[in-house]
Design a protein that fits this description.
The protein has 851 residues and is an alpha+beta fold. The protein has 26 helices and 31 strands. The chain binds phenylalanine and zinc ion. The site of zinc ion has 4 residues, from helix 3.
Length: 851
């Protein structure tokens, strides 16, 4: 056994011993032997009085030389860095030079400097810079960088502004002090899609999206999104761009979505490249959101960064919140909110309710890469949404202005963040802070009482135990409520109640018994527990003025029904069928909203809900009953579907805007339903007629769901076989929509496909990730799903621990299921834990999941 990797604790934070005043780097690029020369201008940090050794992080570096003020010194080198004893350091400031050799070609972990199909690129967040050179690789060390790149390649990029270039070299200078995790370098044979932008104060900025030759015609939407993001951040947050160039590069091999390196964002090509023929409406929406997200980081993340990685939500929660606001402004706030909540529940509530639960600001970790989670990102954004609701629009604007002026150029903490809200609004946020320090999704029970004159709502909150946190205090929960009278008129417009105690009542005058609409807009990330009759849900679905709760009423109706189908053998009745039919054909409603209302509850969501209600979920049964539910709906709506499909056909060329996308979403939802009653005839015709990827994939999924679509799959591969991003869809959708008894076999067959390039993270996710997302297939009673996923994680781990660890969350829900399944998952976790040489990344995840 190797040593147990050690945890890092928030409580142990100490400022760095030195200051880095300037960094100059020279790269002589070569696939197997890249030389990196670093000159660091260092001085003692007055924040750490006394004389200290100099400790620099460094991993997998071949050290050639170390010099201080030009003289060779003997540094102590170990597996994680180098130490130069205090006695060997001059007093005051000095220059440290190092020269190392690294091998980007062999770097399969895609962290540090690596190669992707002939192109050099870097990924330094969170701790990748230490694989490039010796450096204090921590976010609170901020310095200006100057970079020289030498390579016989046409495009050589780094952060900041270009200083000069010639044949085989280029120099860059980034004047803004930054932490090393924001460093980036790209070198390759690339072409640019370019545009210009002038900031509000008149700075001209050259915008470039760098891609491989042939992909230039797929950059227009990303560029348009970038320009809209830049304008929006000026208008809404008063934030301008601060360099002369803004570069984006698309790479095919990338562990995550994208990275906000200063002035040089690097993107997974999947989140840049789009054309109507190759990208779906969901792809377009994600590109818009991610382009905005990375751009917004320039202020929330780069200009103001994190003091340490425990503060990750400081930049991520805020930047997600900002990109959600942006997408809402660009599209529809109602639809965006519903989609965000669906995602939050599917990923974050799932995480919060299992063995991997952790606070939005954790206080310890083994491998920081394992904490880029839905909790840090999505719950982190929800917490900011609550803050905004509590202090109001104006208070929020004042707090943010203060944040930017007070902390610009700094590495800040959650305490700093909360203090700007306290100082700007006078509000005490001591209790609110629990949202950052305590894990778990609060459950809120509601009772109502009407005595003829007044109406009382009583709330009780329960904060469930999570790993390492058996007990916790009451949270501040903003609960937005409205009251309707029995005719459907609103008698109390949206009002925010502040629940701060374990149990609390709120009274309203009411001459008639009102119907409450509670947690409007999903005003807090909690589970609301209230016994509501199907009639009342149908009433809210028809009348609620709050679009989120209107949708939520339909969803709750569907979930109640599906739960009764699974547990009592109930059958879909008119209360649900008629209510959904009314929404589906209500032309006064946004088609995108109607499409969302038609979406059936997910199987994983259902399993979680049943488990919370004390019932052990049976994945096969949930799958079968959900299918029955879809068939009943298809029969009920069937006769009217062809008319709807016809009416929603978009004349003219494809446009990716929200209006057109919403119409396509409803049309595809209708096609999928119709396939259940017409054997796929309409879907097959729609597939044949499709001139865009949204409809091509939509119709294909409709066919796969009814056991058809094999010919279409063959044609798809013949047409798109050479396109990596499009083929990812082809791999994923056959698995995601496979019958549960066949999902493992389909996956196995695809792992033998010549294009199953499993070292490419996108392709790995499209295959192994798609199986984990096929609920009944992955949780198949045979255990074959568990085994196959574990096999592949073990295979990937030695090459790319970060992606293997992220994907291991497939197993996090095991405590919900029956003893057999629990035993099978535990056996797979034990098998992984025992694997020789298991990475720290996967090792930590497996250990936490085993409990
Ligand atoms: N910071 C990136 C983002 O959220 C995510 C990321 C983390 C990318 C780690 C790569 C590595 O925008
Ligand atoms: Zn981010």
């Amino acid at each position: 056994m190797t040593d147990q990797p050690r945890a890092v604790h928030l409580a142990d934070y100490q400022p760095y011993t030195h200051r880095v005043e300037h960094v100059a780097l020279t790269f002589r690029l070569a696939p197997r032997a890249t030389r990196v020369l670093a000159a660091l201008r260092l001085s003692p940090n007055p924040g750490r009085p006394g004389r200290h050794d100099l400790r620099l992080d460094g991993e997998q570096l071949r050290l050639i030389a170390v010099r201080i003020e030009g003289r060779e010194v003997a540094a102590r080198v170990d597996a994680t860095g180098m130490t130069i004893p205090a006695e060997m350091l001059p007093e005051g400031g000095f220059t440290l030079e190092t020269e190392v050799e690294i091998a980007p070609e062999g770097n399969t972990a895609l962290e540090g400097l690596y190669m992707s199909r002939g192109m050099y690129c870097t990924q330094c967040e969170a701790e990748g810079f230490r694989k490039i050179t010796y450096y204090p690789d921590r976010p609170d060390v901020m310095a200006p960088f100057r970079v020289r790149i030498e390579a016989d390649l046409p495009v050589l990029l780094s952060n900041g502004n270009p200083l000069g270039q010639g044949p085989g070299w280029a120099e860059w200078e980034d004047p803004w002090p930054k932490p090393a995790y924001l460093f980036a370098l790209v070198a390759g044979d690339l072409v640019a899609h370019s545009a210009d932008f002038t900031t509000a104060s008149g700075r001209a900025v050259a915008l470039n999206i760098w891609v491989r030759a042939g992909d230039q015609d797929r950059c227009a939407y990303a560029m348009d999104s970038l320009i809209r993001s830049m304008r929006w951040d000026e208008e809404v947050y008063g934030r301008e761009y601060d360099l002369d160039v803004f570069n984006i590069v698309a790479v095919d091999d990338f562990n995550m979505g994208a990275m906000e390196n200063k002035g040089l964002n690097i993107f997974n090509s999947k989140y840049v490249l789009a054309s109507p023929e190759t990208a779906t409406d969901d792809d377009f929406a994600r590109i818009e959101a991610i382009i905005a997200h990375e751009y917004f980081h320039n202020w929330t993340g780069n200009r103001i960064t994190c003091r340490d990685w425990f503060q990750l939500c400081l930049k991520e929660g805020l930047t997600v919140f900002r990109d959600q606001q942006f997408s809402g402004d660009m599209r529809s706030h109602a639809v965006k909110r519903i989609e965000d909540v669906l995602m939050l529940r599917a990923r974050q509530f799932r995480e919060d309710g299992g063995p991997l639960a952790h606070p939005v600001r954790p206080d310890s970790y083994v491998e920081i890469n394992n904490f880029y989670t839905a909790t840090i990102y999505e719950k982190g954004a929800e917490v900011i949404g609550m803050l905004k609701r509590l202090v109001g629009e104006e208070g929020y604007a004042r707090a943010l202005d203060l944040y930017f002026t007070r902390h610009d150029g700094e590495a800040a903490t959650i305490e700093d963040w909360l203090r700007v809200f306290e100082d700007a609004t006078g509000r005490d946020l001591a209790q609110f802070k629990r949202w950052y320090t305590e894990a778990g999704t609060p459950r809120v029970k509601v009772w109502e009482e009407w005595d003829g004159e007044s109406y009382t709502l009583t709330f009780e909150q329960e904060n469930p135990a999570t790993p390492g946190q058996p007990e916790k205090g009451a949270k501040v929960i903003p609960i937005a409520v409205g009251l309707l009278n029995p005719n459907g008129d609103e008698v109390l417009p949206t009002t925010v109640l502040e629940l701060t105690q374990d149990r609390q009542s709120f009274r309203f005058p009411a001459a008639a018994r009102p119907v409450p609409s509670i947690l409007r807009g999903f005003s807090a990330p909690v589970v609301l527990e209230r016994d509501v009759s199907p009639e009342e849900r149908a009433f809210l679905l028809a009348h609620d003025t709050d679009p989120f709760n209107k949708w939520e009423a339909g969803r709750a109706l569907a979930k109640d029904l599906l739960a009764r189908m699974v547990t009592e053998g109930a059958a879909p009745g008119p209360d649900w069928l008629d209510a959904i039919a009314r929404v589906t054909f209500d032309e006064g409603l946004d088609p995108a909203f109607r499409a969302l209302a038609l979406r059936l509850p997910g199987e994983d969501d259902m399993a979680s809900t049943l488990h919370a209600g004390g019932i052990t979920p049976d994945p096969a049964r949930i799958w079968a009953e959900r299918r029955r539910m879809g068939e009943a709906l298809a029969r009920r709506l069937g006769p009217q579907l062809p008319g709807l499909i016809e009416a929603l056909a978009e004349p003219g060329p494809f446009t990716p805007d929200a209006r057109a996308a919403g119409r396509r979403a409803l049309r595809i939802a209708a096609l999928a339903l119709l396939a259940r009653v017409d054997g796929g005839r309409a879907a097959r015709a729609a597939h044949a007629a499709a001139d865009n990827m949204t409809e091509e994939v939509g119709a294909l999924i409709a066919l796969l769901e009814v056991g058809a679509g094999q010919e279409e799959l063959v044609a798809f591969e013949a047409r798109w076989g050479r396109d990596r991003n499009v083929m990812d869809k082809w791999f994923a959708l056959q698995i995601a929509h496979a019958h549960p008894d066949q999902a493992v076999a389909v996956t196995e067959a695809l792992t033998r496909h010549p294009d199953f390039d499993w070292k490419n993270p996108n392709r790995f996710r499209s295959v192994i990730g798609a199986l984990s997302a096929n609920h009944a297939g992955f949780h198949h009673g045979s255990g074959a799903g568990y085994r196959l996923v574990a096999d592949w994680l073990l295979r990937l781990d030695p090459l790319n621990p970060q992606t293997a660890a992220r994907m291991s969350t497939a197993f996090e829900t095991w405590p919900r299921y029956d003893a057999d399944r629990q035993g099978m998952v535990q056996a797979e976790l034990a098998r992984m834990a025992a694997a020789p040489g298991l990475s720290r990344d996967l090792g930590e995840m497996v250990a936490r999941m085993r409990g």
